[in-house]
Amino acid sequence: MKISLNWLRNFINIPEVSNEEIIEKLTSVGLEVEAVEDYSKMYNNIVVGFVKEKQKHPNADKLSVTVVSDGKEEFKVVCGAPNCQQGKKVVFAKVGAFIPAFGETLKKAKIRGEESFGMLCSEKELMLSDSHDGIMILNDDAPVGTEISKYFGLDDCVIEIGITPNRPDALSHIGVARDLAAIYGKSINLPDDKVIEADIDVNTVAKVVVKNSIDCPRYAARVVKNVKVKESPEWLKKRLKAVGLRPINNIVDITNYLLYETGQPLHAFDLNMLKDNTIIVKSAETDTKFVTLDSKERVVPKDSLFICDAEKPVALAGIMGGENSEISEKTTNVLIECAYFNPTRIRKTAKKLQISTDSSYRFERGCDPNNVIYVVNRTAKLIQELAGGEICKGIIDVYPEKIPNKVIDFRLGRVKQILGFIVEKGKIESIFKGLGFKILNSDVNSLKVEVPTFRPDIEREIDLIEEVARIYGYDNIPVVEKISIPMKSTVDESEYNDKLRGILTSLGCYEIISNSLQKKELAVITGNPVKVLNPISSDLEVLRTSLLQGCLNTIVNNLNVGEKSLKLFEIGHVFKQINENINAFSDFTEKEHLMVALTGTSINDVWYDKNRQYDYFDLKGIVEELFSKLGFNDISFAKPEHHYQYMKNQFEIVVNNKIVGYLGIVSANILKKFDINQAVYYAEIELDILKSLKVNIRKFKELQKYPKVIKDLAFIVDKNITYAELEEFIYKNSKNILKFVKPFDIFESDEFGKNNRSIAIRLEFYDENMTLTEEVVEKEFVSIIEKVRNKFNAQLRGEVK
Predict the structure, then answer these.
(1) Are 270 and 276 in contact, with CB atoms under 8 Å apart?
(2) Are strands 89-94 and 137-138 parallel, antiparallel or unpaired?
(3) Residue 202 has what DSSP assignment?
(4) What is the mean pLDDT of the chain?
(5) Angle between helices 425-434 and 173-184 in degrees, nearest 10
(6) Which domains does the chain have, with CATH numbers?
(7) DSSP letter, residue 44
(8) What does residue 556 show for φ and ψ, rounded to 5 degrees?
(9) Predicted confidence (pLDDT) per residue in 769-791, tens digit
(10) Residue 796 pLDDT greater than 50, yes or no
């Protein structure tokens, strides 16, 4: 629904309110503004100019050099229009003006050696018409310096509002003005509908018969005789164009104008083309062919509502008129139809015919049956003003069963109960009056509110409370203090564990479930076990102290059936005795652990690749990917303070500076106990600690704008120095342009010395705000090398002889 703000301001006096504020307020009360076309800004820096001087261009026969005044300054302008004359008022675009036809901003120019500080415009250049025979010559009384937008009445702002189906009243300028009136505590200024009638009784010149009062509860008509059909005045055409309508003639334009002003569709018939000057409203008895105003022949289905004369259909009720009764230049007598049709009937017919018009759109949602007389009078008055003629005395009004306004009892105390805060009674009454509701009775505790039929969506007290909240402003609702109960942040154990399972299975691992009861001689490998008072058997006499034993049992079972390559995980509880005698829960621990184990072949022999066994880095990669998908970024691996005898090459897993577990290779002596003759890479993580850590929220990060600089180097260091130590030291002792450090080769050779090895590292440098120069990167690169040399007694591999 397009709304002209200039048009809107005719109904409500808010001169101090800007267009921007109106747009904001309408959106805040539910009339969402979806698009804005501010024409007042389109013609900035374009004014009425006066040509003080005109001379022939020294270097071009068809150009002139003029001096143009804007009332304050004088400007030199080169013009090529043949009708440019000294002493004339013109449209002058200054430097910086936006020229609509060009889609560009005007700049100072030099034309054939002469500077030009603007241009004199034609109608086409301003997109006012297609005329470009010459520049626009204005009337002599045009005020010099006046903005063209104001001079031509182009200073309008047109907005498009998304109207929800429950607000048919907002499908008009008056309807939107009511919401503004309620917001600002103003009243609506409705145009006068008083008419000057002739002595001719309308019942002597026209007749209306309604045969289907269910689909047409009300039908009103007025007759205006001796009109003159012609072009509409400029103000009316501008209003229609502003909301996207094409002017046709003064009679049709008035009906369209009233549709957008009041929201009430209406139709004008050529009375002389109606057989016996009669209107009959009835349903189609069979499928009927009918030619509508768009010159299309349609097959109108049975039971559709027709407007007919004494012998034929002349309009499809509520949707579109027919060609056989349309207004033309020959029309002299007009019958104005203003009716209320059943929304369901109009919706069904329009859908079957696949027609959607401004009229059907409004009738489908529900018009105001009690506004018909005002609209028909206002229409007749405008026709008389713009087309002349005589308004016949009286209105034909077929309204057998009046549709009453709703009356709702409104309890003031209920507002606080629903909204949670008090709204003053005076404010509530102001809101209701602004919306067009009538206060029938008022006391300390309640109001009796009459809701007009233009608001079919208001049916109950709760609807009125919603209107109070809507107009009062949701942003203005005060903060209500509430009793707060601090609650400890907890983790949904089931959901978290399911997430772990999902991640690990996506990485190719299979879940196992092992018995939590074990042999004591196996359980003591990983801790002090808790004894069971009445064990089922000697093999199930204690609670497990780790998930390792169950994992190794599973591996043995698979090896016995020829399955040698396994990627396994398990989530389970482990128990360890703290005190010698268990008398309470504090004498032992129960923790939830996760284990991940790899053994066998990672890649089998295929034609495109060679056999490769699982190794330490496969396990490390799975652990890192698991933590990354859980939302942890700070992951590292450190040498343990305490080495487990059942592990070798053991490292602690550190997340957010907390030790959450360990990984490594299961010792050969432990594997021998289980008759396993292949390497097993094993990690065990304490989920109780992991679940207590704060995860990082993933955020969008733009692609790197500036290029990276990559530098590779290899250090010869003692074998006891780990890559992790090198990496940590480099990060801590480098500038922030070093973003990433990673190893890509570890190599041992006699040429490096018996206790030495080579660790090759890749360094990535970049800056988020600029391109790094080679000089800056090289300086930092050399600095890192020197610091590593001094700290670890390292040598660059290329320097070793």
Answers:
(1) no
(2) antiparallel
(3) G
(4) 91
(5) 160
(6) 2-40+156-184 (3.30.56.10), 43-151 (2.40.50.140), 197-398 (3.50.40.10), 406-473 (3.30.56.10), 493-692 (3.30.930.10), 709-799 (3.30.70.380)
(7) T
(8) -60, -45
(9) 899 999 999 999 999 999 999 99
(10) yes
